[in-house]
Amino acid sequence: MLKAAGLQVPVQQLAGSADDNLEFLDEHQRIVVKPLDGEQGHGVAVDLRSIEDVQQAIEAARQFDSRVLLESFHEGLDLRILVIGFEVIAAAIRRPAEVIGDGQHSIRALIQAQSRRRQAATDGESKIPLDAETERTLKAAGYDYNSILPRGVQLAVRRTANLHTGGCLEDVTAILHPTLVDAAVRAARALDIPMVGLDLMVLAADQPEYVFIEANERAGLANHEPQPTAEKFVDLLFPHSQPAT
């Protein structure tokens, strides 16, 4: 739908035979694997570069949906744009979970401590999983769970930036580029979903380049403070309650 509406989207295909998956990987070199119908970042693996990692990620994704999607990987920042009533209400850069070394504790202990902090700050909504995706992210950076991270070293422990897997948000509503605003509204209209969270990969929130990666019709509202997301959602549900202008 989004491609037909003239919007930028990654190349996609359903996971198939090992040969089909290898052909897609060879064409794009770096790919994403995710459940076709998933949420909260579960079963998503990004920046996969070997067929072994791809096949392993497909099996993990099938725990959440038997249909698994392969798509081309795109570098950039993870931007969530919240559209309510076909109007952009909020936008935030989502940053992956990370830890900072103290020269004493293992990365596993640092992750567990940071995960507890994120859970406390989000009423249990955000937690960093100790799973294969976290392990793969550490391995790519030259570490494992037992490594002692040097003092002051900052390390991303996830590739995806979902709040539910320990990510955090930085509000960028005020600087959102007009091209991104227009693309988000067009996407919501193409999907015919008046309240939707749209995820894009961008170079920066104030630059026009983008690629859509996901649409979430059950996007969280409370994560976008100080923007008036709840107020706008109530207005959408009860339009006659709005004051006359």
Could you characterize what this model shows?
- This protein is an alpha+beta fold and 245 residues long.
- The protein has 3 domains: 2-72, 2-Layer Sandwich (Dna Ligase, domain 1), CATH 3.30.1490.20; 77-94 and 170-237, D-amino Acid Aminotransferase, Chain A, domain 1, CATH 3.30.470; 97-166, no CATH class.
- Helix content is 28%, strand content 24%.
- Strand 5 (77-84) and strand 6 (88-95) form a beta hairpin.
- Residues 3-242 form the ATP-grasp domain.
- It comes from Pseudomonas fluorescens.
- It is an enzyme of class 6 (ligase).
Label this structure with key terms.
Dna Ligase, domain 1; 4-stranded antiparallel β-sheet; 28% helix
- CATH superfamily caption of the largest domain: ATP-grasp fold, B domain
The averaged pLDDT comes out at 92
| Series of H and E elements | EHEEHEEEEHHEEHEEH
Strand proportion: 15-25%
Sheet with most strands: strand arrangement: 9-6-5-10-11
The CATH class designation of the largest domain is Alpha Beta
**Class per helix and strand makeup:** alpha+beta
CATH topology heading of the largest domain: D-amino Acid Aminotransferase, Chain A, domain 1
Query: How far from one another are the termini?
Result: 35 Å
